[in-house]
Write a structure and sequence with these properties.
A 5-stranded parallel beta sheet has the order 1-2-3-4-5. The two termini are 25 Å apart. It contains 4 helices and 5 strands; from the N terminus they run E-H-E-H-E-H-E-H-E. It has 173 residues and is α/β, with parallel strands linked by helices.
Length: 173
């Protein structure tokens, strides 16, 4: 591991890469972040799924994600720090298939399913249930697990998958 900490007991250090909300060159933002942080971390996650950055989720589209990964690929080949992509639980099935295809094409080291959701299930009871932004926790589990299952259907064991959405207990994991 790059940090020397990459064992189970000591843990791993990762970087969650994102773009500035007012960026004129979002792929460039990711490239700068990856290049500067890669030597310092054990892995880097390309977060294209935060609902709290206006327009960021558009980078999950086939054309946009292809351009972003094409920009990162030479850096990834040179720096060798594992590179993963984190997606949203709100993607349509054809978008999930495209992400899986691009993960294979660009030889990503993994996919993370999922970030927070913009959905507001009817089961929410809080007076704050209508707030904008990403919803996490238990209401996310089913949607996130469904995305994870769809991803596996497309990549099998060829790309490592990390499930993070809404998991509350070891038994659930």
């Amino acid at each position: 591991a790059r940090t020397g900490r990459g064992n189970f007991l000591a843990g791993f250090v990762g970087a969650n890469l994102g773009a500035n909300k007012d960026s004129a060159d979002r792929p460039g933002d990711y490239a700068i972040c990856y290049e500067r942080l890669a030597p310092l971390v054990d892995f880097a996650v390309v977060n294209v799924s935060s609902p709290n950055t206006p327009g960021l989720r558009n980078l999950q589209g086939r054309e946009e994600l292809t351009a972003l990964l094409a920009r990162l690929q030479p850096l990834h080949e040179r720096l060798k720090t594992p590179l993963l992509v984190k997606i949203a639980p709100d993607l349509a099935e054809e978008d999930i298939a495209a992400v899986a295809e691009l993960a294979l094409k660009f030889k990503l080291d993994g996919l993370v399913a999922t970030n927070t959701t913009i959905a507001r299930p009817d089961s929410l009871r809080s007076l704050n249930r209508g707030e904008t932004g990403g919803l996490s926790g238990a209401p996310l589990f089913e949607a996130s697990t469904a995305v994870l299952k769809q991803l596996y259907g497309h990549v099998g064991g060829r790309v490592p998958l990390i499930g993070v959405g809404g998991i509350a207990t070891g038994a659930q994991a």
